[in-house]
Design a protein that fits this description.
The protein has about 700 residues and is mostly beta strands. The chain contains five helices and 41 strands.
Length: about 700
């Protein structure tokens, strides 16, 4: 790490020197509104975002990426996973074919997702139809977000109503697999002081995979009221409905002299039951937010959010492949899982700006309450022919699936979570060139679990519980040799309770375990080369303590991983190189290693050493634009046992845009232009996704 840090420090120093020599000075305070609207490079309190203070990105002592609405539309990105493939330091996990799951700096999570700064931790695929921008913050983030977020967090910012404006737009698309979508966005002024923003979408799902299909839709009305010049109230409601096939990819095959590899030649074959592999989600999310400006130096907000989620997924999946016999035998396993969750979240923030002598302060004080009720049950499958939950069948296309049913109780738990948090942070301008950011957060996390199956055992009440009280700190030091350059060093912490990110791993053993602790140390540089182009780079060390997780193939087994360390570097360039050429490019180097126990020295799961992403867009004429993109990942191991390796791959994408009129655009996106045969992600050693072949999507967008 020291060698790597020295090398990148030369890059940081060279970058800073170049910036000083350029003599570029940005009048950013005067142009703040333009920056927010056009480029989204400020994360301001007014934008209802993750950092909670009106701090320019260049003054934040951490690595982050902002994906704007324009980028989402131009690249025809439908899901969060699509967005994150073009983000340095992140890799996508399969999520068993029914949820968003990501790896940030070597740490896997299904719960570190936020919506307008509020926790959104249920397992599902998050659509992007109503999203204005996506903020990817890397490094431990307990101070702003509380528990979890060991490697970082993802915050989606929704579209807000605009008072005094009328506008509407619509889009429709169709791809070569037969998947199609329609969406609409309309804003209606209600008098002078109120507005309604209505977003909606509907989508049919299809892919290169046999029998895969589904549909989903959502509607999101949002009301905004200006209650005087200093106060604004926003009322938000969203309903989502998702019904799709659960597809867990292909198994792995033994390779002589090396780790196992994904099974090739069966990219389209469905290793499950076409009738029974299904997941459904119905979600209701309601939120009220009140913002008030007390005076020029003090403002604040209060947000209340209630969410009700009903989730089901059931599936057969490959649990092994024996290729030593002819024909090869595929082992199948399966289960049905149901989750109901209600979240009540309350959050309040005060931001004050004041001076003490020659030093300027931006002080954040906040408090948060979270109450979460979850019911989760699992039924194991039973094959009629052998009376077992697993069976081996000949490898064929399609598979011949024996009769089975989900009938064997495996898990029946409910959990109640109460979390209370208080946090404070001060951003101090020590001088014109030196800034300090320091803060701490206190969290009290109380989880109570009722294990109804354990309660059937004599002498066991089934009650499990644990209370954790944690103080997490954040410290950042920023040096600004020029207005458009910052060099920073930071330290941050977070924790994850022993109940896990979905509260499923609390047992009589794990309820005595301390939370997993994450510590992130980082140095970096940010350089606004010009008002439309930014470069950032960072090196970091992320240390993760001991944690437990449910074995993905057997929920009765709780495995323990002693800990891990990820050392790495990231660099990204985004903006306009010329008036006609825009670019979004990123590179990350990750060295993740398990520390201690039988896995000591192994590589952390799904952590490619090298990841590259580039998206170039060029305006050929006033009406025609062309784009080309690249994503590359080096080889990585599916799990910490390093038994199965996902091969490296490089995928090329392209697009063309033609403006039929000043209100209508025709857009063609081509994915996997060179028809690369690749495996983009995985869940377990025998659940590995196959990449889609060459395909295209045609989209029409119109502004009314």
């Amino acid at each position: 790490f020291r060698t790597m840090a020295k090398r990148l420090s030369l890059l940081l120093a060279a970058t800073a020197v170049c910036a000083l020599n350029s003599g570029v000075a940005l009048a950013r305070q005067a142009a703040e509104e333009d920056v927010v609207t056009v480029r989204g490079r400020y994360l301001s309190l007014d934008q209802v975002n993750a950092v909670k203070t009106p701090t320019p990105v260049i003054d934040l002592p951490q690595s982050l990426t902002i994906m704007t609405r324009a980028q989402i539309d131009n690249q025809a990105l439908d899901d969060l996973g699509d967005v994150l493939r073009y983000t340095p330091g992140l890799s996508i996990s399969q999520g068993e074919g029914h949820r968003d799951a990501i790896n940030i700096r070597g740490n896997q999570t299904t719960a570190d997702f936020f919506l307008n700064g509020m926790r959104d931790d249920v397992q599902y695929f998050r659509p992007l139809y109503n999203i204005q921008q996506i903020e990817i913050l890397r490094g431990a983030n307990a101070l702003l977000f509380g528990r979890g977020g060991g490697g970082g967090v993802i915050n989606r910012v929704t579209k807000d109503p605009r008072t005094g404006e009328h506008f509407a737009s619509a889009a429709a698309s169709l791809n070569t697999f037969g998947a199609g979508s329609i969406s609409g966005d309309a804003n209606f002024a209600i008098g002078d002081d109120a507005a309604l923003r209505l977003n909606a979408f509907a989508e049919t799902l299809a892919s290169h995979r046999d029998v895969f299909d589904g549909e989903r839709f959502g509607i999101n009305p949002t009301l905004g009221f200006d209650l005087g010049a200093q106060t604004r109230l926003v009322l938000y409601y969203e309903y989502l409905d998702d019904d799709r096939v659960v597809d867990r990819g292909v198994p792995s095959v033994t390779v002589a002299g090396g780790p196992d590899r994904p099974l090739r030649g069966y990219d389209d074959t469905f290793f499950g039951s076409p009738q029974e592999n299904r997941t459904t989600l119905q979600a209701h999310i309601l939120r009220a937010r009140l913002d008030h400006t007390f005076n020029d130096a003090l403002r604040g907000n209060i947000t209340a959010q209630y969410a009700d989620y009903d989730k089901l997924y059931q599936n057969l999946y490959p649990a092994g492949l024996d290729s030593s016999v002819t024909p090869a035998l595929v082992t199948l396993d399966g289960y049905q899982d149901t989750t109901g969750r209600e979240n009540l979240l309350l959050q309040g923030n005060l931001v004050g700006e004041f001076d003490t002598g020659s030093m300027a302060h931006t002080l954040l004080f906040g408090a948060e309450y979270a109450g979460q009720s979850t019911d989760n049950a699992r039924l194991d499958n039973l094959f009629a022919s052998n009376g077992d939950d697993q069976i081996s069948v000949p490898l064929s296309d399609p598979l011949i699936i024996p009769d089975f049913a989900f009938v064997t109780p495996e898990r029946d738990r409910s959990s109640e979570v109460e979390a209370i948090s208080v946090y404070i942070q001060d951003q101090i301008d020590l001088t014109d060139t030196f800034k300090l950011m320091a803060g701490l957060r206190f969290d009290r996390f109380d989880v109570a679990v009722l294990d109804r199956r354990a309660a059937l055992n004599p002498g066991d009440t089934g009650h499990r519980g644990r209370v954790d009280e944690e103080i997490s700190t954040r410290l950042g030091f920023i040096y600004k040799p020029a207005e458009n350059v910052s060099v920073y060093a930071s330290y941050s912490e977070t924790f994850l309770p022993s109940s896990g990110d979905q509260f499923l791993t609390l047992t009589t053993t794990t309820e005595d375990l301390q939370p997993q602790v994450f510590e992130n140390t980082e140095i970096g540089v940010k350089w606004d080369i010009n008002p439309d182009l930014s470069l950032s780079a960072a090196v970091f060390r992320l240390e993760s303590g001991q944690f437990t997780s449910v074995d993905p193939d057997d929920p009765s087994i709780v495995t323990t991983v002693p800990g891990s360390t990820t050392e790495g570097a990231e660099i990204q360039l985004s903006g306009s190189l010329t008036e006609r050429w825009t670019i979004n490019a990123g590179y990350s180097y990750l060295d993740g290693e398990v520390e201690g126990g039988s896995l000591d020295g192994n590589t952390t799961r799904q952590t490619p050493e090298h990841m590259v992403s580039v998206w170039n867009q060029f305006a050929a004429t006033e009406s025609l634009s062309l784009a080309i993109g690249l994503t590359h990942q080096s080889a990585s191991f599916v799990r910490e046992d390093n038994a199965v390796e996902i091969p490296a791959y490089t995928r090329i994408d392209a697009a063309a845009y033609y403006d039929l009129t000043d209100r209508t655009r025709l857009q063609l996106n081509i994915e996997n232009l060179l028809n690369e045969d690749y495996f983009p992600d995985a869940h377990s050693n025998d659940n590995i996704s196959t990449g889609a072949p060459l395909n295209a999507r045609l989209t029409v967008r119109h502004e009314f």
